Amino acid sequence: EVKNPLTPIKLSIQHVRRAWDDQRPDFEDILVRNADAMLGEIDRLAEIAQSFARFGAPGAQDVPLTAVSLEDVVGEVMVLYGGATSRVRFTQELEPDLPDVVARTAELKEVLVNLLENARLAGEEGTSVVVSARRGVMPGSVVLQVTDDGSGIPEDVLPRIFEPQFSTRSKGSGLGLAIVQRVVRAWGGGVEVESEVDRGTTVTVTLRVWEDEPAPSRGGE
Fold first, then answer.
1. Which of 3, 19, 37, 151 is most exposed, with the fewest beta carbons within 10 Å of its own?
2. Other beta carbons less than 10 A from residue 215's beta carbon
3. Residues 115/147, Cβ–Cβ less than 8 Å
4. What is the β-pairing status of strands 88-94 and 127-135?
């Protein structure tokens, strides 16, 4: 998990360097956006240790749930992924005027980065990854999805993907999806995964709309 913010930082630096080499007329804007995003990832590294303490001690949630703008979180993460790699293409499709959701901003960023990293690592040259969000069928819910057309997950492996220490890759701790599930459940949401070998994977995160919560306070940091 500590490594996760390092990849977006690296991709962002590559994006800035490529924009400089191409003498992009909007280079200043690209530099500012990516610098802000990288600074945010550095701050997130400092938060991860504190987050792990919460994950390891159920019920010890010292940071309250808050109203979080899914549009803002997706926007910040997509600055890092949206144009920073040529191997995998990342796009977003957000329903307009989405309501705030019940979460913590730093943890929601970590969840989304986990899912995008899984999709990136499962993809070969030309793989497409789409981050989408819409109002859910269930009243008072918002659905966040990460869909890729990568290698997919074998049917016999799917039941185990949320187990701690289980990974389909030779590198990594296997904690990513286990943490995603635990964090989202702590918010009162849910996570589902559908996948087919050679066709891709869709991870669906269902979140509660904030209006059902008492005494709202914006933010989550």
1. 3
2. 5
3. no
4. parallel
Q: How far apart are CA 5 and CA 1, in angstroms?
A: 8
* Residues in CB range of 23: below 8 A, 6 or more apart: none
- Please state which of the ranges 83-92, 185-194, 205-214 shows the lowest mean pLDDT: 83-92
Let me know: does 42 contact 4? Beta carbons within 8 Å.
no
Q: Two tokens at 126? A: 């030309």
Buried b (16+ CB within 10 A) or exposed e, 125-137: eebebbbbbeebe
Least confident range of 26-35, 99-108, 144-153, 167-176: 167-176
Nearest to 133 by CA among 82, 97, 106, 187: 97
Assigned token pair, 7: 């990849």
pLDDT over 90 at 39, yes or no: no
Q: Report how far residue 215's alpha carbon sits from residue 212's, in angstroms, rounded to the nearest whole number.
A: 10
In the numeric block, which tokens belong to residue 145? 């999805």
Give the pairing of strands 66-68 and 101-103.
antiparallel
Q: Is the pLDDT of residue 174 over 50?
A: no
Helix (H) or strand (E) holding 92: strand 88-94
Band of pLDDT at residue 58, cut at 50, 70 and 90 = very low
Query: Once rounded to an integer, what is the mean pLDDT over residues 97-103?
Result: 96
